[in-house]
Write a structure and sequence with these properties.
single chain, about 350 residues, alpha/beta, Rossmann fold, seven-stranded mixed β-sheet, two-stranded antiparallel sheet, 16 helices, globular
């Protein structure tokens, strides 16, 4: 073949290739092949494959093909999970370590009501089936930061894990929806709770459409409770907040009551348990969140700081938003005023009795 014919053949081959894959030569030249593109189906180096091969003990069958696996299981272990995506693995469930051993259920609170409501839900499958409804529930918890919304989620998580179920923590609603669909194909009757913490931030990051698709779109699943939290319910669209079957219960979680604070302080600060000082701490911490109570214990007991000053400091944090324009004198006046207002004599005098 002469040079002219060879050039024509190569030109024709290149044109045919471009027609098939719609890729310009310039794009091919500029593309970096040193790192596999996670959005493509190329054959780049797969570190996961090396790990799977090194730990291979069994075969995992997909269609008519077999892949090496360390272990095959029929069900996920009870626990809390994220739904993740890998180019080589596809969608998979990743455990989310969490310590649920020392949680407290505080009395006379909205949290207790929500927990009891969900516990009842798990016993009502037959009624849902008779009525022809999905066995599904949605709960939206809102309230100020530190009021106990996350603690409520953790308590509900512990209860579903104790009954052999799993909790799925939402990072990406679209991935979570697809993961839940896969979960139901493999484990159709597993109790599941899906947690959307700070749903306003998730909505802002991923858009409302993905959230709605997860909650009640084409990939609906059964035997599930969706639980969302937010500090800012006003940021949520009415289609999320005012639509039963998405969120059937919308409940505010307020700050702990005096009795709840007493139980928390007694459980977390053994030194003052069953002493008159417990009354003093309860009276001084009106409107304190769980986070504020924890900081009070840490500051006084672990760091040896003055009780009155610590209470005053925490109240300043509650009542003001720091700004770069704040001057030192103004801050000092606020701190000293807070200290004077919360003297120990005033606290002891006004301390309410605690119920047994």
């Amino acid at each position: 073949m002469n040079n002219s014919s060879e050039t024509d053949d190569l030109k024709e081959l290149r044109e045919l290739t471009q027609e098939n894959d719609n890729t310009e030569v310039g794009e091919m030249a500029e593309r970096d092949y040193s790192t596999p593109d996670p959005t493509s189906s190329g054959d780049g180096y797969d570190e996961d494959s090396d790990i799977r091969a090194a730990n291979a003990r069994q075969w995992a069958k997909v269609g008519d093909t077999f892949f090496p696996a360390e272990q095959t299981v029929d069900s996920l272990e009870p626990g809390q999970y994220h739904v993740e995506y890998s180019h080589h693995r596809g969608i998979f469930f990743s455990p989310k370590p969490i310590n649920l051993d020392n949680l407290l259920i505080l009395p006379d609170s909205a949290s207790e009501e929500i927990i009891n409501n969900i516990e009842q839900f798990w016993t009502r499958e037959d009624v849902f089936r008779k009525l022809g409804f999905l066995w599904k529930r949605g709960v939206l918890l809102y309230g100020p930061a530190g009021s106990g919304k996350t603690s409520t989620l953790q308590l509900i998580t512990k209860k579903v894990i104790d009954r052999g179920g799993i909790a799925v923590y939402v990072k990406n609603p679209q991935l979570t929806a697809q993961g839940l669909e896969l979960l139901r194909k493999i484990e159709p009757t597993r109790p599941v709770i899906v947690m959307v913490e700070d749903i306003d931030a998730i909505q802002h990051a991923y858009g409302e459409a993905d959230l709605l698709a997860m909650l009640d779109g084409d990939l609906q699943i059964d035997n599930v409770v969706f639980i969302a939290t937010t500090n800012y319910p006003e940021k949520l669209d009415k289609r999320l907040v005012n639509r039963p079957s998405r969120f059937d219960i919308v409940r505010k979680i307020g700050m702990p009551t005096p009795e709840a604070r007493a139980i928390y302080l007694k459980a977390r600060n053994a030194r003052i348990a069953n002493t008159d000082e417990l009354y003093e701490w309860v009276a001084a911490t009106d409107d304190f969140s769980i986070a504020h109570l924890k900081e009070l214990i840490v500051s006084v007991e672990a760091l040896g700081q003055n009780f009155d000053n610590t209470v005053a400091r925490l109240r300043v944090m509650m009542d003001t938003n720091p700004a770069s324009t704040d001057d030192d004198k103004k801050k000092e006046i606020g701190f000293m005023a807070g200290t004077k207002k919360n003297s120990r004599a005033d606290i002891v005098e006004t301390a309410p009795p605690l119920r047994n």
